[in-house]
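hiii so um. not sure if this is the right channel but i have a protein structure encoded as tokens and i wanna go backwards to a sequence. like what aa goes where. can anyone help
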């Protein structure tokens, strides 16, 4: 299942592995919890299972088309499984049971994000992944993936909401695969993510959510840093995509949630570092597009405020005997015109120029000479120097006369330290085994804490 065809000796198995990768691209979901599922499964399991109720007929429950008439969360005049409330998986209302169960998680086999290797049985001795492990009452999918990635493991597994296992074990499946709904215990660190179950481990490739990497496969999915958590503040990441022999690379953003106009994604020509496309909250990638190069750099930048879910992008290299004719809007020259074609708005001023300079620093070889300083920079620096000297002199004078104020200053620092000790509260957090009951109450509450309100 791992998408690594480069080292396989036999051509046939290489083809099979690539086919496996391509199948993964046909996934209906690119989020860990299927919040983006828009497929048409209308029962809780493809083999039998309970029939789902229509969202336009569930007015006795919090989620229905009367309350969300504009297709929020994918609701509509249908009875397809959806995840409108930030649960760990798509679900639907069912005709009520004797025991009061009125909704169920859906087992949707096509809704598995690429890089999620599935839900597997664990009999404990030895576990499916035999590398490092840890437990944490703040476990998220990415906290476990990061733990394993930093120890150079290719796979990370979460179990029972708080346990994390790492490994490279090729036979992780040996105790058998389980249905996805058996891995729907919430992560203790993030109740919108699935973290396995009792005796069930959910496995992920540790490439998910890495800040940067080098890709040479014909195709792969790249996720924003820290995925499926929101991307962190101050992230500067770049991924190289170099597929020798390709005449072009197709990009399809299947998920794009960038919070402000400062955070951004850019695509650069790998050879010239020229910015080919820039996306942010105002310039979203509307449709797939081609770049006619075999070497592209994907770049991500986030500032210190306003984080969001991030992105998932499929790339697929293709080979052509002759380059596409200049017919149609897409085959334009890959300068600024590409951006015009694929975004809502075109604006390459200011911040775009700054961002490519950041990348320029990162990717340029040290042999290249630094750029010449413009004249105004010299004047600005001189002015700054004079101001600094004045400030230092002033400070020395103030220090002599206001010495005693220093005490107040140090007290403030102490307060800061004290307030940062709020982490202590997490120790009192007791993981509850009745998570599903807790979730059931949530759906029952008619409360305003559902994620649709923000949309
Ligand atoms: C882009 O990816 C999505 C998700 O796999 C797929 O449904 C869609 O058809 C793709 N678009 C194109 C033009 O291939
Ligand atoms: C589910 O969808 C299938 C195919 O569209 C349809 O035949 C079936 O009647 C639907 N079942 C329910 C319960 O809506
Ligand atoms: C809900 O939508 C379905 C499909 O469009 C329709 O058949 C059904 O009559 C609708 N129910 C109500 C109460 O409007
Ligand atoms: C990618 O390749 C560059 C240069 O070949 C190397 O410096 C960098 O460490 C690689 N990054 C990763 C994540 O392997
Ligand atoms: C991108 O290139 C592929 C392969 O040549 C082609 O099938 C596809 O139509 C192109 N897509 C766009 C948007 O130009
Ligand atoms: C695109 O860039 C190339 C060099 O990078 C330049 O020669 C060409 O004139 C540019 N085309 C347009 C339409 O700007
Ligand atoms: C680009 O953005 C700048 C400031 O963000 C604005 O002044 C300018 O009018 C914009 N240009 C276009 C073409 O939208
Ligand atoms: Ca931001």
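sure thing!! here u go:
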């Amino acid at each position: 299942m791992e998408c690594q065809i480069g080292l396989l000796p036999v051509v046939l198995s290489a083809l099979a592995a690539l086919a496996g990768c391509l199948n993964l691209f046909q996934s209906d979901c690119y989020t860990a919890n299927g919040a983006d599922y828009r497929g048409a499964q209308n029962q809780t399991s493809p083999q039998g299972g309970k029939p789902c109720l229509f969202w336009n007929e569930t007015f006795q429950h919090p989620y229905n088309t009367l309350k969300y008439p504009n297709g929020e969360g994918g609701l509509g005049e249908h009875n397809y499984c959806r995840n409108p409330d930030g649960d760990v998986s798509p679900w639907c209302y069912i005709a009520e049971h004797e025991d009061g169960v009125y909704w169920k998680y859906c087992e949707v086999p096509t809704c598995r994000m690429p890089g999620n290797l599935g839900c597997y049985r664990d009999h404990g001795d030895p576990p499916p992944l035999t590398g490092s492990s840890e437990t944490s009452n703040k476990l998220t999918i990415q906290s476990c993936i990061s733990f394993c990635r930093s120890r150079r493991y290719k796979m990370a597994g979460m179990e029972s909401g708080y346990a994390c296992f790492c490994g490279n074990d090729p036979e992780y499946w040996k105790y058998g695969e389980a249905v996805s709904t058996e891995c729907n215990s919430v992560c203790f660190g993030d109740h919108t993510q699935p973290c396995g179950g009792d005796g069930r481990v959910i496995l992920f490739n540790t490439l998910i959510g890495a800040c940067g990497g080098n890709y040479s496969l014909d195709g792969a999915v790249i996720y924003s840093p820290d995925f499926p958590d929101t991307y962190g503040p101050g992230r500067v990441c770049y991924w190289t995509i170099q597929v020798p022999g390709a005449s072009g690379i197709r990009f399809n953003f299947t998920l794009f949630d960038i919070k402000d106009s400062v955070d951004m994604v850019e695509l650069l020509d790998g050879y010239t570092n020229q910015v080919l496309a820039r996306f942010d909250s105002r310039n979203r990638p509307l449709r797939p597009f081609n770049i006619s190069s075999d070497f592209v750099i994907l770049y991500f930048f986030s500032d210190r405020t306003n984080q969001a879910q991030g992105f998932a992008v499929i790339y697929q290299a293709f080979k052509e005997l002759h380059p596409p004719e200049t017919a149609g809007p897409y085959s334009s020259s890959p300068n600024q015109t590409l951006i015009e074609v694929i975004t809502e708005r075109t604006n390459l001023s200011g911040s775009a120029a700054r961002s490519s300079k950041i990348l320029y620093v990162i990717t340029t070889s040290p042999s290249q000479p630094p750029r010449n300083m413009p004249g105004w920079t010299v004047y600005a620096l001189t002015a700054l120097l004079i101001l600094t000297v004045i400030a230092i002199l002033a400070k020395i004078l103030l220090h002599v006369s206001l010495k005693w104020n220093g005490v107040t200053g140090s007290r403030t620092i102490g307060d800061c330290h004290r307030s940062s000790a709020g982490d202590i509260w997490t120790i009192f957090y007791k993981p509850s085994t009745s998570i599903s009951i807790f979730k059931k109450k949530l759906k029952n509450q008619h409360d305003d804490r559902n994620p649709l309100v923000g949309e």
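oh and The first strand starts at residue 91 and ends at 93.
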